[in-house]
Amino acid sequence: NFGEFDDLYVKRTSIESACCQALSQPGALLRLKGSRLIGKTSLMNQVLVEMKEHDYAVVNLSLKLTDKNTHFTSLNRFLRWFCSNVSRELELSNQLDEYWDEADLGCKVSCTIYFQDYILEQLDRPLILCLDDVDLLFPYPEIYEDFFALLRSWYEKARTRKKWQNLRLALVHATDVYIRLNIYQSPFNVGVPQELPEFTLSEVEELATRHQLQLSKTEANSLVEVVGGHPHLLQQAFTCLKSDRNLDLDTILAEA
Asked: How far apart are the C-alpha atoms of 204 and 10, rounded to whole Å?
């Protein structure tokens, strides 16, 4: 649950504040990038908690929840999955059949109408829609080309249409975007980019403290020389130290 704080989470105040500031703008589009397992999801969870406390409606949807053999077989199926899950997260009834007309209007227009005339109409406050793990779409050009163009069109609508200003998008991905996209249809060259770096030395020390471990600066430096400031690798090292009191950092580094 993104509303629950992780006791091991190390706050990155400046980055969190920048994300909150970006998402507070009408029609915002935030792009958060960072290497795998570096803490993007955890950081966005904290950002979404903050925004929810400021009375924003929040949906956090990971594409890991898709079934690629079902939802990635066509754009229509994917967009229906997308709309159904947004409705469910907002505790709105599924009204897809009432608004969907793939044969005459097409699925992109149907999806847009569903958001404009149903989802955004039902809310009395701005909606922050976070799409995590969007790079899972990158192997499927038959879906991502139209879906990302759709998101870009919603971002453009917010320039002139007040209702669409209530939709704030956050796209979270792990890899650089080298996919085939028209620059005028891509959501990856507009909005606010934010990259999540590895931990600084002081953040490494704080993470150790949260594991109830005390590292000297020399030990912290030695660990960083081996694993960098990568949160997942640091977490693995600290978990090993905490679970086996007979194990010391020198042994871990020697065997790493």
From this structure: 9
Cβ–Cβ < 8 Å for 149, 190: no
Q: Which portions of the chain are predicted below pLDDT 50?
A: 1-5
Tokens in use for 124?
A: 């009395």
pLDDT at 1: 43
pLDDT in tens, 127-159: 999 999 999 999 999 999 999 999 999 999 999
Contact 40, 34 (CB under 8 A): yes
Long-range CB contacts for residues 238-241, cutoff 8 Å, separation at least 24: 238/207, 238/208, 238/211, 238/213, 239/211, 241/211, 241/213
Residue among 208, 186, 171 at smallest CA distance from 44: 171
Residue 172 per-residue DSSP state: E
Rounded to two decimals, the pTM is 0.90
Residue from 157, 75, 61, 57 nearest 116 by CA: 157
